[in-house]
Model the fold of this input.
Amino acid sequence: MASTWVPDVSPDTPFSLANIPFGIVSSAADPAPHAAIAIGSHVLDLKALSSYENFNEIFPSLKDHNEIFSKPSLNEFAALGRPVHREVRGIIQDLLSSETSRPNVLKDNAELREKALLPQRSVKMHLPMTIGDYTDFYAGFHHAYVVGALFRGPQTALQPNYTHLPVGYHGRSSSIIVSGTPIKRPVGQILLDPTAEPKQPTTAASRRLDIELELGCFIATPNEMGTSIKVTNAEDHIFGYVLLNDWSARDIQGWEYIPLGPFNGKNFATTISPWVVLADALEPFRTRGIDNWTPLQDYLNEGKENNILDIELQVDLETPQGDATTICTTSSKYLIWSFPQMIAHHSLGGCPLRTGDLLGSGTISGPSLREKGSLLEQSEGGKKDIMLYGMDVRRFLKDGDTVTIRGVCGKPGERVGFGECVGRILGATQP
Done:
């Protein structure tokens, strides 16, 4: 990978020239949300770049889409399809490269450069996509096994269907928020004494507020209702990936989820990182996922081993006193189902996926304690303390706690990462 002429691009930045993630920003000079990419500690304002008089000559695939980077979401760009995403990303890499093969209209144009290349600290990030639907899967094998063993014992930890199909449920897209947005502790029905008869819940703020470390996938091109997406073609329908924290109120969820699954215990907030890392940027980091010992139905058979992404993931918990502790380091490779398999299963019955739909991987956990992507696992169902810096402990989240998820892959100077997925817990508002 060539070097870039952009200043302040540290070898450790997740936004190297090898990445070029897309997002939606606003600034004091242009408060209307619009498209940009991240490079080092800067953003390249794509709306400003598109004002260049020869923009169509630089980006020929966008000649009929002159206003596409002025839109308040990336949906229209995503809908153009993966070949266009690939071409546009490659041209941007060339424009930012020290070894560009063309006259550098950005580097050598001081007026355009000043307007288009901005410090990241000077812009505000917004949700990158207009999200019509959100589906959360349960593809993290170690998480599914540990949580199942907590509630049903190790012999029946996994339900009989688990290795036959990607288990999932439909979440709530209206409460998906961008990194940095505070989360108010949810209120719901809670069963304080599960052993009491008759069962009598109370309505109160959640006492068992948790995180779920996940990877999110955005759909680019849709399928028509009544058709299905073949697993071997599903990659063409992927726009890119984000980090995802599917906050969970375990006590609310525990009382409500039988027989139809999560509801108020999940629908209050889901946080995503603001930069969408395009699918092509993550191609070099494929690996083999968790071995599935069950013979697959034909529609789920990808015909290749390296079908999972290997992204280094980290979760930090900062207390209200300002003490931060890394409570989890793991990898996205601990999935038993890939996103193409999730897409193939989701559309099997003819469900139309749409541009901007978001799929969550489910909680990602590794086999060891410090690789667990939820406090539920780390505290063994709320029975054990999780030790933090500052002589503090947690079993679940307290008001004022801040959770930060990071994800990165690649070597120094060529890192491909997501930035941060951050949320701070605020006190509940009683009904």
Notes: Residues 323 and 391 are 10 Å apart (CA to CA). The first helix runs from residue 46 to 49. The chain has a mean pLDDT of 96.
